[in-house]
Amino acid sequence: MAQARQAGALELALDGLYAQFYLAERMGAALDLHSALSTALEEAAQAHLTLQAARLHEALGRVAYQRGEYFDASEQWSRTLDLATLAGDLPAGVAARIGLGQIHYALGAWDKGRRFHRDAADLLGRIDHSYLAAKLALNMGVGHFENAQLGEAEAQFRQGLAQALRGPHADFIGEAHWQLARTALSLHQPDQAASECQLALGWARRLGHRWLEGMACQTWTDIAIARGELSEAIRSCREALSLAQQIHARTGESQAHAQLARLLQQQGDTAAALQHLWQHQSLRDEIERLSLPERLLRLAHYDLSRKPPEEMLLELSNRHWRIESEADVVFAAREMREAAQQIMQLDAVHFWWASESAGVLRLHDQPRAEAAGAAAAPLLPPLLPPLLMRAPAQAQYLLLLNERKEALAVHDLRLHPCGQELALLNRQAQTQGTGSPSLGSARSRIEIPLFVQNRLVALLWLEQHQQPRSWSRQDLLQASHLGRLFERLLVGHDLACAQHAQWLMEQEKADALGRLVAGVAHEVNTPIGVAVTAASSVSESALKLAAALRGEKVSRAELTELSVRLISGSDLVERNLQRAAALIGNFKKVTVDQASEAVSDFVLLDYLRSVISVLGPALRKAVVSVSLDVDAAIELHLAAGLLTQVVSNLVMNSINHAFPEGRGGQIRISARLEGRHVLIDVADDGCGASADVRARMFEPFFTTKRGKGGSGLGLYIVASLMERLEGEVELPPVERGLCVRLRLPRGRPGG
Q: Distance between CA 578 and CA 674 in Å, rounded?
């Protein structure tokens, strides 16, 4: 290990120390490594070695448990659980759960202990690990044994023995024989118990496993008592006491002293018995004293100088804010942050919110002047560049939050799995002078991702700065509840935005229809004007013909000329009136359908021709041509009006965005069948869209022409209408321009 350190291989050195601990523990020398393990843990934290830190916490938990320091053991194993989850180390997580189950057994909380062991068993089912399988089976057997379920206990001990033999794991082979000896003795099978106990003692002595030897000696004492061999019982009990003292096992010492007190009293040595009884009581008091921090924490709930956290949390839950804008959310979040600090006795609470761009979390620790209103502006500091958390700088961290979807408790931020990405964020804050001055000084943190409609929209940081804080289960429950309250704010904002967007959508549809009416009216004026002029010419020619026929003589040439004028004029009238009638018919068909969501059967090609005809004025003005590549046999059964709005919005989006500066271009609409669906591609050969724009173009109010007439609702309406049509919209890659693909159900079977 020293060579590994010198070579800069700290991970290898720490792994070697962990392996050394395993060997030392079997020999009862684990306590000798306590100082080395603590120092190594500090090294792992400074080097951000999460995996090694998880294993070192697990080892320190076992040392504390052996010494009867249950509070410290539970702290160490709780940290193991958190770090093992972050590092993806299943074995460490299983070992910690087994240990926590042992603590609950030691405190008499059998149901909770069994729950930890069942969780360990579920995790263990994912890996083949005979050592942990043997350990778990033996510990589950202890739970059954202490509850007098001897049949179930024996079955678990034999399963543990089988797993230990499969390893082979000599220490667990010996422990399995010892547990079977205890079970046999409880079943009133002293001979079987003696045989199993001798096997356990033999394995323990060969391994130098002093803990196991001490426990087997205690059981041998019970066997000797059952046989009526008082002297043998006292000898064995003294040996058990000596072994427990060598490895500083307080619980084992306490049990041995109590047993010796009873035996010596039976022998008539009252003075010696009393001495051992006092030793037993002293050890019990020491074990109780070591759990004092936990009891003091519970007493804090009865501090009359401040409201209990539960009461403050309930009051906060009953508060309601009117949420109509971003400023409302920021104001409410500020008050909730202050309340959260009091409830959980925190040093700082930070609120990150993707209020402007999806996937970009901005620090909202105070409202901006423009969001808070002009009256509040003088009270706020000068505006600074916002502190943003986004990909690629914090890509792994955002991915972790999306995948985890639950609170992340980090006791030591040096062991954060995304420490480097967050350190970059802290440096950015210091460079820009942005954000809270406390950002980056935290020692411990709970990080709560906040979701709305399964999208990560915000993040809550609950921080401790002065000293590292071991987050308790109660802390996590309170933090999760606070997270739900913040989510309630965000859901309210989302609902307000949706209602506003719905109102704007209706306005947009009305405006679009108005523009359509104006365009068609202008378009119809031309053929009607030509028809009126032609009709006037026909009328004039008819009057001349009548006058000529009333005369005394008329020439053939004159009659021929007048008839040609009449035929030409009437033809001009007829053609222009037909053109106007077609325009009005298409407009009527499209507008009536657009105002209705009635489902009907229609031929796709004919319908698209009608839509393009109505959009003709806008297309000609933009110098954009539309070509259709649609099979005339494709028929659909759906709400044609909704499809009209979709296609119209896509064509108008291309006109407005794909062809800047009126340079014109082409739009191609194609369709093909794919099973029970039809795919419609609306593609243009315009300027295309960047990856960032493509990622956001279906969001409400997103536009690349902000302040230039763009509402940001065109493609959002497309996506919304496609949902109502039970279809999908996507952006397939193209070499030039932009293509929007609509996937629609064909409707009735056989359609």
A: 38
Within 8 A by CB and 6+ apart from 282, the residues are none
Q: 234-243 burial by CB neighbour count: b if 16+ within 10 A, else e?
A: bbbbebbbeb
In the chain, pLDDT over 70 holds for what percent of residues?
A: 83
When mean pLDDT is compared across 266-275, 360-369, 468-477, 558-567, the lowest value belongs to 360-369
Taking a C-beta distance cutoff of 8 angstroms, is the pair 445, 468 a contact? Answer: no
Distances (CA, A) of 570 to 565, 567, 576, 577: 8, 5, 10, 10
Amino acid letter, 114: R
627: helix, coil or strand? Answer: strand
Residue 709 is predicted with a pLDDT of 45
Write phi, then psi, for 510 (nearest 5 degrees).
-65, -45
Dist. CA 612–CA 519, nearest whole Å: 13
Q: In which element (H, E) is residue 615 found?
A: none
Q: Which of 360, 361, 335 is nearest to 349 (CA)?
A: 335
Rounded Cα distance between 597 and 673, Å, is 23
3-state secondary structure of 410: strand
Environment class of residue 312 by beta-carbon count within 10 Å: exposed (0-12), middle (13-18) or buried (19+)? middle
For the segment 415-471, what is each residue's pLDDT rounded down to a tens digit?
Answer: 888 888 888 888 887 776 655 656 778 889 999 999 988 889 999 999 999 888 888
- In this structure, the chain runs to a length of 751
**Distance from C-alpha of 180 to C-alpha of 185, rounded to nearest angstrom:** 9
